[in-house]
Design brief:
The chain is built from three helices and eleven strands. The protein is an alpha+beta fold. The protein has a seven-stranded mixed beta barrel with strand order 1-2-3-6-7-8-10.
């Protein structure tokens, strides 16, 4: 698998289990790229929905993707703190300048005080029936929801106290480099 290069701009493509595109983020700056982890950042990037609608993200975000975990984490930097939107998803793959994953509907929203709520359980059950998620996928996804909640409670990965400062500083560095070009 190719590895995105730090400082480059990539797209993020979200698909559904049936192979159809779900959502595309036009520009994300790679802050870290390895075989297992991609950390990116974006701000006011264009997002295109499957029906063609577009919108701009509102705040700076740090994005965490892992090649072994069935979730990804978007850290949204707002005035009143960091909010996390966690997508239960396939591990990512990277090719042709795009990071790609399958979105499996379940989401966990985490608030600045680290309280959290599980979202979209009805949508998950509907899509599970419609798209025929195999039982093994259902089991993997539910195990990874538990793993993700463990990370939240233990302040691991993107939930660690210094994660946001480290990666926001790296993002600021790349933004300054672009401005001076």
């Amino acid at each position: 698998m190719a590895i995105p290069v730090e400082g480059e701009t990539i797209q993020i493509h979200s698909y559904k289990h049936n192979g159809r595109i779900h959502r595309v983020w036009q520009e994300t700056t790679v802050l870290k790229g390895t075989n297992n982890i991609v950390i990116g950042a974006n701000e006011r990037t264009m997002v295109t929905e499957s029906d063609g609608r577009t919108w701009l993200t509102r705040e700076p975000s740090i994005c965490y993707f892992h090649a072994e975990h069935w979730f990804n984490i978007i850290c949204m930097l707002r005035e009143d703190g960091v909010y996390y939107y966690c997508n239960v998803s396939s591990p990512f793959v990277y090719n042709n300048g795009s990071l790609k994953y399958i979105d499996y509907d379940l989401d966990v929203k985490v608030f600045p005080d680290m309280s959290y709520t599980l979202l979209d359980e009805d949508e998950y059950e509907d899509h599970k029936r419609q798209m025929g998620y195999p039982e093994v996928i259902d089991q993997i996804l539910h195990r990874n929801v538990e793993k993700l909640i463990g990370w939240i409670k233990q302040r691991r990965g993107p939930f660690a106290p210094d994660f946001i400062d480290v990666w926001t500083n790296r993002y600021d560095f790349y933004r300054q480099c672009r401005l001076s070009d």
